[in-house]
Each structure stands twice: as C-alpha cells, then as structure tokens.
Amino acid sequence: MQPFVKPTEDITTRQACQVESLGHPVQFSAENQKTFQHLLTRYPTKQAAVLPTLWLAQEEFGWISTEVIEYVSELLDLPPSHVYGVVSFYTMFYRKPMGKYHVQLCTNVSCMLMGGGTILDCLREKLGIDLNETTADGLFSLSEVECLAACEMAPMAQVNDEFHGPLTPEGVNQLVESLKKRG
C-alpha cells in the first residue's frame, strides 16, 4: 500500500474551486428576511434549507460570493465549508458575477447532433465572447451545460429561466437582438 502523499497542487487555485469576493458584507433585505424565516418553517432542520436559502441569496445578490457563503453558513448554523460544498456541486449557483442574460447552451448529445456546435459558434461571434465569459457591458454571459432536458427543442439554450429552441443561426441573431432591446 502506498503511503499518503500530500498533493503538490493547491486545489483552491483551480478555476473550478474559485469563488469571487464581493468585497463587502451582505445581508438579506427585510422582505427576503421574511422569506428566509418562512423557508425555515418548511424544513425539518436548518441544514435542509441550504438549497432554497442559497437560491434566495443568488436572487438577491446576483451570484454567490465568499461573503454570501459566510452569511448563509451563519444563518443556517453550518460550517462555511458545507455551504461551499453545495455551491460548488450545483451548476445553478454562480460563483462570479454573471451578465444580465445568462445564455446556457446545451452541449449534450441531442443538441450537438442537431447542430449545437454551429449554434455555439454563432453565439460566440454574435456576443463577442467565449464560454465562461461576460460581455464588457455586463449584458450577456455564455456557458455550456450538460443537459437541460429539452431534447425535443434541440439545439437549445436557456436564457435565465427561459428555454429557446430549436435554435438556428438566424434564431440566435434574433434572440440576441431581442435581448439587447430589452436592455
């Protein structure tokens, strides 16, 4: 049996482990304080409310910063490492600021077979950014997701909470232009 060898790499420097800092403490608004208190009544323990609390925090602050992780851990009497573990596991939580419109392109088998690669190229060109980037004006972020469970719409993307598909290069142009008009 091999003895344990300490890794030479500091895993906290990996992109996948990064959580950006907001730079100041956070606190729920009065309205979300009430929502949080109501959430607690729906779960048997505070720990069981970690997902909806994080979702509420992301809705209010826009993303999950190190300060949000610390705040949620205090609210739920959990170690920050536990809250971080949840945040880093679920792709629905953003660990850096995102654009107003988060374009998530499905790159799973059905979408790729139906032209997802072409749609990705169109999005990159139209937005002027690559995957995991945000436009300079903060309007768009682009990322790929493994599956959005809407194969009948392939190739498709989710923009914030709305599904769009089947997408064509012309459809991508129309979608981006309509979002730009919304501002």
Major β-sheet, in short? 5 strands, mixed
Distance between the termini: 60 Å
Structural category is: alpha+beta
Q: Evaluate the radius of gyration.
A: 19 Å
Global morphology: elongated
- The first-level CATH class name of the largest domain: Alpha Beta
- Enumerate the spans where pLDDT stays under 50 for 5 or more consecutive residues: 9-16
Helix segment tally: 7
Task: Assign the CATH topology of the largest domain.
Answer: Glutaredoxin
Number of domains: 2
CATH homologous superfamily of the largest domain - what is it?
Glutaredoxin
Helix content: 40-55%
| E-strand count | 5
Structure description:
With 183 residues, the protein is α+β, with helices and mostly antiparallel strands. It has 2 domains: 72 residues, NADH-quinone oxidoreductase subunit E (Arc Repressor Mutant, subunit A); 82 residues, Glutaredoxin. It is 41% helix and 11% strand. The chain has 7 helices and 5 strands, in the order ααααβααββββα. A 5-stranded mixed sheet has the order 2-3-1-4-5, with helices on one face. α1 packs antiparallel against α2, α3 packs across α4 and α6 runs parallel beside α7. About 4% of the residues have low confidence.
Explain the layout of strands and helices.
Elements (H helix, E strand, L loop, with lengths): L29 H12 L8 H12 L4 H10 L4 H10 L11 E6 L2 H5 L2 H12 L5 E2 L5 E6 L11 E3 L2 E3 L4 H14 L1
Parallel strand pairs: 1-3
Antiparallel strand pairs: 1-4, 2-3, 4-5
Helix pairs in contact: 1-2, 3-4, 6-7
